[in-house]
Amino acid sequence: MRRRPFLDQRRQSSFKRRWQQRPWWFRLAVTLLLALACFFLLLALRGSPDPDPVVFPSTDSSRSEATTSPLLRQRSYLDGVSDAFNMTDEMLSAHSFSRQLMDQISLAKTYLVVAKEANNLQFAAELSSQIRRAQSILAHAAAHGGTVTEQEAEKAIRDMSVLFFQAQQFRYDSAVTIMKLKGQIQSLEEKSKAEAEKSTKYGQIAAEELPKGLYCLGVRLTMEWFKTTELQRKFTERSPSVQSNLRDNSLYHYCVFSDNILAVSVVVNSTTLNSMHPEKIVFHLVTDEVNYAPMRAWFALNDYRGATVEIQKVEDFTWLNASYVPVLKQLQDAATQNYYFSGSGNRGTPVKFRNPKYLSMLNHLRFYIPEIYPELHKVVFLDDDIVVQKDLSELFTINLNGNVMGAVETCMETFHRFHKYLNHSHPLIRAHFDPDACGWAFGMNVLDLVEWRNKNVTGIYHYWQERNADHTLWKLGSLPPGLLAFYGLVEPLDPKWHVLGLGYTTVDPTTIKEGAVLHYNGNMKPWLKIGMEKYKGFWDNYVDYSHPLLQRCFTH
Prior knowledge:
transmembrane; polygalacturonate 4-alpha-galacturonosyltransferase activity; cell wall biogenesis/degradation
């Protein structure tokens, strides 16, 4: 028996492989098209004159069955598909050289991509040449309104088939292609993760930096304070009535602990401007020694509608020492300092936890409010990154139902619940706290200092801080120990009192409009360049950029 040429055998094998690689829906469609073509061929043969006709018995019932047969119904559907996709007889023909060329071009383009990825440039160039050749044949036939002849297509189809066989030798099959694509996806994911880590790191650095304008303001205020004795007398020679306001429990007492002069100014300014009785407001401010003089100078230079402002420095609280405060004791430990700044073990501490604010006593001073103000009964604690939009006097009449704190809860479904902040794999946490307990936010909190003292919340805070000396209960920050210290002692407030998220996410405009306190929690503070522009306006409304000192230090 005569042996078939090698290329013919290879071409069939290549077509078979390509056919098996086609999606199931494509093979089904081609099968249906071929069946339709055969049906048309049979109709043509029956309609043509036959020299020796054979008469088949025919009945009305058989004609009826023929006209309603599934085959004819299928033909009607495929005719609709052909019209919808503008298919020609040439495209549907089983012997069409045009269709073979188009199929080869599609497959060749796939191999071309894989060849370039494998850096096989010579093979890629040959594929490109054959693709252009096949496209040229199809274009020539279309331009002359004819079909592709066997003479035109045979060599192009054979040459392309040779390249397909070579591609299979290079292992350019579907499985390999999929593996390469998976590898590329994994590589892109790793790059994306690395870029996200860089973004977080740079964002944290930007959040920690002191803007030039704020530094300039602090320097100029310090100069003003020491060269102007009149400013100093405003704080050192206060009237007895002002001194009594600091202890009068019939007034509205707010406390803010911060080293940011302009941010504290916005808190005080927005609170007094939106208050119906600003003369009843008393602000208790605590800062550090570096900002003590400029903070006093600023509030001596400006009036806030008759509100009383007290300024202290944390260094004067000599009772806050390492023998009493667990955090200060831990900060003296070299291992703790290493954990804060460089991480422990092989994996470093996440960059967001390496913020100096976690080392600042100003951040932990909120747990000692009853001792700082022993004569007060109720205060509202405010962070320095908030803006007040409504009168807050109603907060002092809210019934806390025997609880120590009034706060807005932040849990939504599984978000901001205890298990997001605490290590519930630790037996001590697991035994005492519900992992699904709802979290709440610092930033605007009503504090009943009488209940605080009765329930010894500061002692509870010390207990958990001492248990977390090895950082196994939680990482860093003041919120996790706050959740533990005030567990079961928090009265939920209406969410309108405290709107969060303006420093890191998008907040519903209606929620912002109805909110009493807007909180820029997150890294994108409104006084930083990385602050969210769409929310900066709420903060800027309470900054008087016409002030001579601000004009010298800020270009707005």
